[in-house]
Amino acid sequence: MSKAVTTKPSVSYLLNRLLAGPTPVLRHARRRSIQTIAFEEIKSSPDKPHQFTAFILHGLLGSARNWRSFSRSLLSSLAPAAQWRMVLVDLRNHGKSAEIQGLLPPHDLENAAKDLANLVKSEGWDWPDVVVGHSMGGKVALQFAQSCANGHYGDSVSLPKQLWVLDSVPGKVIQENSDGEVEKVLQTLQSLPSTIPSRKWLVDHMMKLGFSKSLSEWIGSNLKKSGEQETWSFNLDGAVQMFNSYREMEYWPLLEHTPKGMEISIVRAEKSDRWDPEVIQQLEHLATKRANETEGKVSVHVLPNAGHWVHADNPKGLLEILAPKIASVV
């Protein structure tokens, strides 16, 4: 059992660390689960075949539904020049994928990325043209690209032309930094019973431990009905394992030698608290490297007026960064 902890007074500090948001209304996206991971598929036009595909990957304790609204806006920005399809996945241990049997441990970034490859193969799809990942999902995207480049998914794989990493540091996460607060939240959730009497009980309990009302209510939004009680909509133990893998993995070699034909775009939120000056300098150096015909490229973007919760803090600004470059894939 973990001891009571006292969070910092800033609501955004932990909200931005837990990587999820409100649930927009979904009207026409088709949802179904397969033996690998669950996903939502949203198209520019349901009546026309798509020409290009983008995968959208959420962050820790999030789900595909957190990115519905932004994905619809992105589709609208890309139309009518080309027919796009957005595939919003639930990473293992999250959303509908938490209910799927057969996603075996270890629950790490390598297997989370392999789930994407298995989804492509299972559905008989073409490989995605673009992969967009937020926070932990950004590192899953980097692992996916690295495994594709290393031939781990077979000879028929096609590398994504663009990889978008949204407010996710490519290197290891230093525990002395603010990620320790996320660990406190995860430890607190692990100390709770598997079934919760009610959402109100959970909110009250979290607030007694020193967490803010807003954060406690957001945690309560991750509950789902189980008979007369409530249970988590994610696999907490598996999510903790994924978070540990997220902290340990680093992808600087991939950025230093990006595969030919691929552009890796890092989007740093202006008000995010996770970017050390040394990391920013290293990224800017990679972005200004002279072009090499045998390698791809790295670009760096700063999203103004946004903390880590990029698609909620400044969705218009994020669209202005992503849409023109993604449109260039056509």
From TrEMBL:
Domain (AB hydrolase-1) ranges = 56-319
| A Pfam family annotated for this UniProt entry | Abhydrolase_6
Keywords, alphabetical = Hydrolase
Q: Which GO terms describe its molecular function?
A: hydrolase activity
What family classification does the UniProt entry report for this protein? Belongs to the peptidase S33 family.
* Alphabetical list of InterPro entries matching this protein: AB_hydrolase_1, AB_hydrolase_fold, Serine_prot/Carboxylest_S33
Name of the protein: AB hydrolase-1 domain-containing protein
